[in-house]
Amino acid sequence: MNSISTVQSAMTQFPVPTSVHHRLGEASGNGSVRANGRSPQEVREAFTQFVGQTFFGQMIKAMRSTVGKPAYFHGGRGEEVFQSQLDQTLADHLTEATAEQFTEPLFRVQFPHLASEESATADSIADRGLSQLSSLARR
User: Does pTM top 0.70 for this prediction?
Assistant: First the structure.
């Protein structure tokens, strides 16, 4: 089983909470999400931020739980207090840098109607650009 089908099966077993639908758009009766006046790009950005920060935040938290305090160079109570803020900042930067690589397939599975609408918009923009190029003729 490939990774996409694994994600699809996990998403059917564990549906997205309603609070996520309200953040990304209003949930309709059939489980789909309308953009509520938001463009598909805005929904994609919110989805990428949510998934990336959740994934990287949990990954960093799990990594921190596997190591103990070092014998030397430990920041004491100050490090313990501000460690979660550092972890959040790391998760934010990791999300900006690499989250789109794994959220793109998730977005297409979770929001197929918005993904197709966004690709149709991109196709029309590309077609317009090509039609402008075809108007350039040699004299």
Answer: no
